[in-house]
Every structure is written in structure tokens, then in C-alpha cells.
Specification:
The protein is mostly beta strands.
């Protein structure tokens, strides 16, 4: 796996987006948000990941839990 530089391209107009599940997939995000910049791995403490009966993923607040994800730098157009 290539090593990513420790630089996260963020500008004043960037919107930080915490992604989990399929929004961590590089190919899917390239289709949904062309030009979005992948940032570091992130942890969201106090939340848990779930998949509902229809197969959709979500997160909900939960003590002593955490969701692993990543950050994306998005622009208003995304």
C-alpha cells in the first residue's frame, strides 16, 4: 500500500466530511464527488456503526463505542 504524505489538502473553502462504510471507497467517492481529497483515518468516539434491515449503513450515538472512518476535504460543489 502506498504511503500517503502527512499533508491533508484543506483550504478555507473546504468542508471536512467524516466518511464511513462505502464512502471510504476511493472509486465510489471519485464518482460521487470528483476531485474530493482523501484525508487521514479518523475515529468518531461515542458512536456505533450499524446496518439496518434494508441493508443501509448508518451510525448512532452509543456510549463506549467508536466508528472508524476517514476524512475527506470536499468543496461546495460536492
Amino acid at each position: 500500500m502506498p504511503v500517503r504524505p502527512n499533508i491533508f489538502p484543506i483550504s478555507m473553502s473546504s468542508i471536512l466530511y467524516f466518511a464511513y462504510g462505502s464512502n471510504m471507497n476511493l472509486d465510489q467517492m471519485a464518482m460521487r464527488c470528483p476531485g474530493a481529497e482523501l484525508g487521514p483515518v479518523a475515529r468518531l468516539h461515542g458512536w456505533k456503526y450499524f446496518i439496518n434491515g434494508d441493508g443501509y449503513a448508518g451510525i448512532e450515538q452509543a456510549e463506549n463505542a467508536e466508528v472508524l472512518g476517514c476524512l475527506w476535504a470536499l468543496q461546495e460543489k460536492h
